[in-house]
Amino acid sequence: MNTLFPGAMPGMGFLGGLLIGLAGAIMLLGLGRIAGVSGLAARAVGIGSGTDSRAVALAFITGLPLGAALVAVVRPVAVTFPPSLAVLVIGGLLVGFGTRLGSGCTSGHGVCGLSRLSLRSMAATALFMAAGFATVAAMRALGWG
Amino acid sequence: MRALIALLAGAIFGAGLALSGMADPARVRAFLDLFGTWDPTLAFVMAGAVLPMAVAWLIQRRLPRALSGDAFTLPGTRRIDTPLAMGALLFGIGWGIAGLCPGPAIANLALAPFAVLPFLAAMIAGMLLHRLRAAGR
Questions:
Q1: Which tens digits make up the pLDDT trace of B73-97?
Q2: Does A77 contact B24 at a Cβ distance shorter than 8 Å?
Q3: I want to staple A20 with a disulfide (CB 3.0 to 4.6 A). Which of A39, A112, B16, B76 is the partner?
Q4: In this complex, do A102 and B59 lie within 8 Å of one another by their Cβ atoms?
Q5: Cβ of A68 under 8 Å from any chain B Cβ?
């Protein structure tokens, strides 16, 4: 723990990140597709476009909570949710609509796109990060958490 | 076999989310909160994730096909248009509001299933809305 950033966990963050990147590498080299969670989620529930196998999408999406549960068996995983239902619903609507319109989220554009040096993903990542920073700053200024 | 590989990749991805703190909406919001007690953890997650992926892209260039025998089905990398920008902005606002993006939200089905359910239902509704809007054009 350092005193400048009391809650930070850089080591675990980096290790967890390596696993996320490894998973992306398995999807790319093993199956020839991008580990973009928004796209795979849409495909899994039958709303996605494209020709990707629905079984593959469903399997990947099923794996996400499975892997998280495995970690939770070994060590406690603290998650703190926003208390407001409205915040969760509005956030969910924007994330669902926005990731489809923008063809990707933190995993597809962020992890897979940035590492590919894709200009399109760099632009998307810069924009959603800027919007995220601005939104939290605005909420703080308005006293909404 | 393909589904099994995808399940394994999903599980490794989900484990990474849980281990790194990305699954915690409060930590994600703390990363986005530049004017509060800023938590840089997410930058380390990003760095860790980009490294193996960068190596994977280098290998990908030398492979004619994926190891499964499938052709690579990859999105374009150059076109920056209005839907991309608008979508990324809307996604970023939602991400900032709730502290959740699709991966962590789905992984939370194992960690906080009742808390994440309204977000997931709304997320799918948002995806459907986009689908309906696209179909109406």
A1: 999 888 999 999 999 999 999 999 9
A2: yes
A3: B16
A4: no
A5: yes
